[in-house]
Amino acid sequence: MICYKFLDKGRAVRIFSIMTRWRYCLFTMVAAAGVWCLLASCACITPTFDEDAWRQQVMAAKTEDLYASNHDGTAFFNPWMPMEKKGFLTLLRWRLSAAQDYTDMEKQYLPDVLPDPVKRIRAAGDADFIFWVGHGTFFMRINGQYWLTDPMFSDRALLPKRRTPPGITIDEILSITDKINCIISHNHYDHLDKKSLSDLPDDTRFFIPMGMKDFIIGLGKTDVVEMNWWQSLDLEDGTSLVCTPMQHWSRRIGEGFNDALWASFLIISPDTSIYFDGDGGYFIGYREIGRLFPGIDYALIPTTAYHPRWFMHYAHMDVNEAIAAFDDLGASVFIPTQWGAFKLGDNPPGYPAIDLRRAIVEKELDPDRFLILDIGGLHVIK
Question: Domain 106-380: which topology?
């Protein structure tokens, strides 16, 4: 304790002021630490999630809302079930809550990366094919035309680092063809990669959802077609492209929330139809797409970042929902996408393939209808 009577008045006032500020700072730090501990303790409590209640909510949506306006004058949205708002505290709760346990095998498993992609593609001759580059990127030949979906060849998706390399490089693709049709489903960094798009020829023909044209043109691209849900285009040689709904959302740094639309696409040729689902949660739209376009041959369906379910359920299907989407579409073959490259949720990147194989056995499904490719996997369409 300081005895102020031996100090002059000015010095005593200064010491008292310093001690007061120090006590205030100490109080503030203790209070902040207390608030942080309270928030952290609340966040660490993992919320429960009712799968049955969620499915009932999904199925209660109205089919006619799939055709309603998807823009409110400010931003795009899903009219059949607007996205739940998640603030910073919800994100904090996810990051601080305990993830479910995974076995060592589930944590470590990744797809193989197959060599000699160009040699194998050339060996297919003039046949159409589906080649998995990795994540949501597929290189395909359909009715003699070449297609590329959600080109992602970079080592990082903004922050998450790639765990497996692409199954083919852009230079290798360009050694096969320089005439490419490119589909982009939405603007998240693991689907809209600036470096990958910049490396494509400027005359690449892009088909994109509404609100993304300025970005693509800004990269020097000259042939860019924006599409809205349910819009269709007639292309060469009897091939058509249909833009279909998808339950997701969009945002990039420097852009507003949902400034750009998100979409799935259906490529229909005289011999083959391929549905590409860029990313999304389970919704009644799959049933409607299957009704309008019966006989889909291949459904490329995302299986990624679905844990924890309480946080991810709206925008990402789990394996059971992906199988339900496949059934709703009435497609012949299911090709899972977006697994094995990036860790974007709690589940390890290779886990969805394990989970899907497990579900096929448990549900006694026909394994011949599920084509789980390795990176660089080539499926020749016969």
Answer: Metallo-beta-lactamase; Chain A (3.60.15)
Angle between helices 319-329 and 351-362 (to 10 degrees): 60
- For residue 17, the model assigns a pLDDT of 54
CA gap 318, 221 in Å, rounded: 36
The pTM is what?
Answer: 0.88
Domain residue ranges of the chain, discontinuous segments joined by +:
4-43, 106-380
Cβ 250 vs Cβ 258: under 8 Å: yes
pLDDT, residue 149, reads 98
State the alpha helices, DSSP H only, in the chain. 9-43, 51-59, 88-96, 104-108, 117-123, 170-176, 194-198, 213-217, 285-292, 309-312, 319-329, 351-362
Q: Are 218 and 187 in contact (CB under 8 A)?
A: no
Is 37 within 8 Å of 96 (Cβ atoms)?
no
What is the tens place of the pLDDT at every residue in 258-317?
A: 999 999 999 999 999 999 999 999 999 999 999 999 999 999 999 999 999 999 999 999
How far CA 170 is from CA of 7, 90, 137, 278, in Å, comes to 78, 39, 11, 20
Cα–Cα distance between 98 and 40 in angstroms, integer? 12
- Give residue-wise pLDDT tens across range 234-250: 998 999 999 999 999 99
Whole-Å CA distances, 330 to 63, 102, 140, 336: 17, 32, 21, 15
Contact 142, 269 (CB under 8 A): yes
The DSSP secondary structure of 96-138, one letter per residue, reads HSPPPP--HHHHH----B-S-HHHHHHHTTT--EEEEEETTEE
Put residue 340 in one of left, alpha, beta given phi > 0 → left and psi -120 to 50 → alpha: left
Helix (H) or strand (E) holding 379: strand 378-380
Which pLDDT value is given to residue 256? 94
Residues pairing with 379 in the sheet? 130
Q: How is 345-366 classified by DSSP, letter by letter? A: SSS-TTHHHHHHHHHHHHTT--
DSSP string, 244-276: E--B-----TTS-TT-S---EEEEE-SS-EEEE
